[in-house]
Amino acid sequence: MQCHNLTEQIDINKDARKLVLVGNPNVGKSLFFNALTGLYVDVSNFPGTTVDISSGKYKDMVVMDTPGVYGVSSFNDEERVARDVILYADVILNIVDALHIERDLFLTQQIIDMGKPVVVALNMMDEVKKNGIQIDVEELSRQLGVPVIPTTIIKGEGLEEVKAALNYSTTGNRLPIVMEHLPKIRSLVDEDSEALLVLEGDENIIERHNIVQTEHMRDKIYEARRARVNEITQKVVKQTNKEASFSVRLGRWMLSPIIGIPILAVVLWLTYQFVGVFVAQTVVEWTEGVIMGEYYYNFIVNLLEPLVGMDSFFGRLLIGEFGLLTMTPIYVFGLLLPLVVGFYLVLSIMEDSGYLPRIAVLTDRSLNSIGLNGRAIIPIILGFGCVTMATITTRVLGSKRERFIATALLGLTIPCSAQLGVIAGLIAPLGIKMVILYIFVIFLVFALSGTILNKVLPGESTDLMIDLPPLRLPRPANVMKKTYVKSKTFITEAGPLFAIGAGVITLLQYTGILDLVSNAFAPISEGFLKLPRETAVAFIMGIIRRDFGAAGLNDMVSRGMLSSSQILIALIAITLFVPCIAAVMVIFKERTWKESLVIWLGSFIISFLTAGIVAQIII
Amino acid sequence: MTLDQACSGQKFRILSISDPTISNQAIRLGICKGAELTCAGKLPGGPIIIQNKMQEIAIGRRLARKIAIQVM
Q1: C-alpha distance from residue A412 to each of A267, A382, A390, A568 (Å)
Q2: Which of A46, A231, A472, A583 could form a disulfide with A388 if both were Cys (CB 3.0 to 4.6 A apart)?
Q3: pTM of this prediction?
Q4: Which residues in A lie closer than 8 A to residue B59 (C-beta atoms)?
Q5: What pLDDT shows up at residue A39?
Q6: Cα dihedral angle (B27, B28, B31, B34), rounded to 10 degrees?
Q7: A526 or A6, which is more confident
């Protein structure tokens, strides 16, 4: 994962003025950032999928993007990150979704209350017209006391005016309650902005300045701010046409069970047809089987065999069964790359169109029974792409308890796209019965472990409260960029691990350790799982990456070493097996070592136990 | 009555939100004491969709039970 350290990223002069972009989620902040700096950043449609801060340069200013937030405080990670950037900004460009003005102005008023010079970009003016709404921009500017520029940034409209306005940004009209109380505590901190957060009872800021304070007035200030925003909205917004537009009605349909669940089923089926059938079989057959498996393989073996031979250690290391130049690139580029690109393409479309939060609403009730709320569907879906990335996004969940449940379920039951591809390739020829049995077993383990964790873990999970962004047609350029960035991150992360794994396995094989382990493991693999003892190799590979383990099974199947029931058992075991090394590292980083160890060892035990039970029943 | 009892299409006013952490977040989205909203939809046993002008917010069933409302 590319994790940006805030200070590390800015290699620009410290005295440079900081222009900070602030806005609610999905208001087009990232598009402004791109337009100002010319740099690419991930444009995210789901609140909370990017906690990174992007920074760049505009003229002599440092431009910083912040995660989309509804207010500045410390409710979650995004807010804490955004807060720290906003607190020390010199100028703020606040992007406001003109359609959701009464929601967005809450943040605007809060920044104004901080005493920061602000320019407001009133974005999505095209949709305002489309929905028959009129906004009195001049009056809005007068009420707020800062420049307000109407824009439709996706078409580039208003960008020049915003750039010009940045030169005359002003501090706006603060709330009377803030004006009254701020001076009392102003001397305790360094900046007006900090003083406001102290008044609002922000624990982190209070702690940072060692302030001993017993009470705060957050509720009063929030109420006053909400009242003020409603008053402004009343004055400047005129709704001339109340009929819901088509996209609003479509959004409603997606949430009604009678239409919404069939829509979801169709979406999932299409996703499966595209990723699971078209990409995993048709495309991969060509990329892995022909391009990499034949042309590339023949090329590299013909090139290196005369130099290193096939049986020397280096021969095996480079071009052997698990060769660094044979198996590694063939799997990474022939198999993983197409799958990962396919998956992220679908996910980006769902994200960009605003469909993802609607899936969260539809699945809320079912997820409640395993101690999660609808929001958790996001990391779960992401997990089918890459469990490592998904584990990071469990941060969007509201409590420690939910983060633990989601992380455990991800590590245990969700196969990533790479693994899923190999599994799909192996299981499809076994016929529909086996496919159903496989899905049933995995799903059962998912539901059971979730239910048990929900019962056992102390505390209570949080409830769903999610903002539904308007449905929009996904923008192709945006989708492409997102797919590209995510796929690239995945490959740069998985590639080296794959290579290390291949090297380790070759070494173990060459020294004979692999055989020793296989034999030591035989009572479990042969006795309990009823699999040939060589399967142990695949599981050792699986410790590094589960898809690498699945690839090991693939190899055994192609040599005809497994019967179809044995394939099913091996696949169940490898699916439930420990998460890949990258995911384990992230789990240890995100959770305590105790919890992480429970997840890791638990995966081991549950994986073999489940597969063993199935083996005892069907063989 | 509480929000989970509202019917689709009903307009209502919020009387109180009994969970303080939630009320601090909800106020930003325009959901607070005195706010006049519409129930735009309900999933059986699942979330309630409420609408505030052009904005739609989904609220989990259990949370909806903590929000007292008055139908208008």
Answers
A1: 25, 14, 13, 17
A2: A583
A3: 0.81
A4: 463-465
A5: 56
A6: 50
A7: A526
Q: Picking from A4-13, A329-338, B10-19, which range would have the lowest pLDDT averaged per residue?
A: A4-13
Phi and psi for A65 in degrees, rounded to 5?
-95, 150
Query: Token digits for A308?
Result: 């290193």
For A11, residues 6+ apart whose C-beta sits below 8 A from its C-beta are none
Tell whether the model's pLDDT for residue A55 goes beyond 80.
no
Strands B11-17 and B55-59: unpaired
Measured in angstroms, the CA of B48 and the nearest CA of chain A are apart by: 9
Q: Does A204 touch chain B (CB under 8 A)?
A: no
User: What's phi and psi for A414, nearest 5 deg?
Assistant: -95, 115
List residues bridging with A23 in a β-sheet.
A95
Q: Among A152-156, A260-264, A486-490, which stretch is predicted with the lowest mean pLDDT?
A: A486-490
Cβ-Cβ contacts under 8 Å, A465 against chain B = 22, 25-26, 29, 57-60, 63
What are chain B's domains? Answer: 3-71 (2.30.30.90)
Confidence of residue A254 (pLDDT cuts 50, 70, 90): confident
pLDDT tens by residue, A271-305: 878 887 788 778 988 998 899 989 999 999 999 98
DSSP string, A481-540: HHHHHHHHHHHHHHHHHHHHHHHHHHHHHHHTHHHHHHHHTHIIIIIIS---TTHHHHHH
Shortest distance, CA B26 to any CA of chain A (angstroms): 8
DSSP category for residue A224: H
Interface pTM, i.e. ipTM: 0.94
Contact (Cβ atoms closer than 8 angstroms) between residue A391 and residue A586: yes
Contact B36/A at CB under 8 A: no
Q: Which two tokens stand for residue A571?
A: 């696949």
What structural domains and CATH numbers belong to chain A?
6-239 (3.40.50.300), 258-460+478-618 (no CATH)
